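Morning F.,

Quick status update on the modeling queue. The single chain you submitted on Monday has been processed. Sequence for confirmation:
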Amino acid sequence: MTDAREVPLRAGDAKEEVQIKPLMRPELLSLGAELEWPAYLKKEPETLSVRRRRLEVPTGSRVTVKGTVSRDVAMARLGDGRDVEVDGSQFLLPELLVDTNLSVQVEWTDTVGLSPLNPATVEVIATEDRAPQIALSGVATTIAMLPDQFVDIELRARDDYGLDRVWASWRAEKEGILKQKEREVTPQGKTGGDTLSFSPERMGFAEGDTIELAAYAVDALPGRKPSRSSLHRIFVISKEQHEKMIRSRMNVLPTGQKSPMT
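Structure tokens below.
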């Protein structure tokens, strides 16, 4: 009950009505943070909402936490005794360099002299910038193709904070001569992908070549090696080899079953 009430007081023959208004303790209503990303990410500062008093940011970030209290604040301080900037019903913590997990405790007193039952603890978690993920689909890990055949290959990549470069590479080495072709894929923030239409002869490969296909992705973390997809081998065969392969497959069909090639 927080309504004001008149309470009678007696002292001997003296009697007086005194108004008493119960007040709730000043509780934390919300937390927000100004995030300055690590410089290598080249991202603009961002305003975040801090949920459940926990914030996860990449290692190397700088964070300034702001809290809003249910009543104007007269004073606030950190658990180590340092004073905290206050403005009306808000407090502003000093900027934090997040190079490891941090646990910050803050308590406050409002303008009527009340404090919360317990200080607030804000957890700031330094998260690892994970390597990108990249995958190829639509093609088996080992296939045989005629030089003029086409196959559509799906490339998909993603990263937790943003891709810097994504590409596919086809390479074949024969008699000491290396043939290599690349196809760049333009990333869109955290993701990147495309359908790659591949024909051996269109990319300069010929009968007898064994092509190694893989896709790669890198993010902005300095010194990071590219992430690689699964490795696919493409054998470029002649028409005679192709026909022989078809006949071989037909010969292993169960008796009485027709070949899907007829």
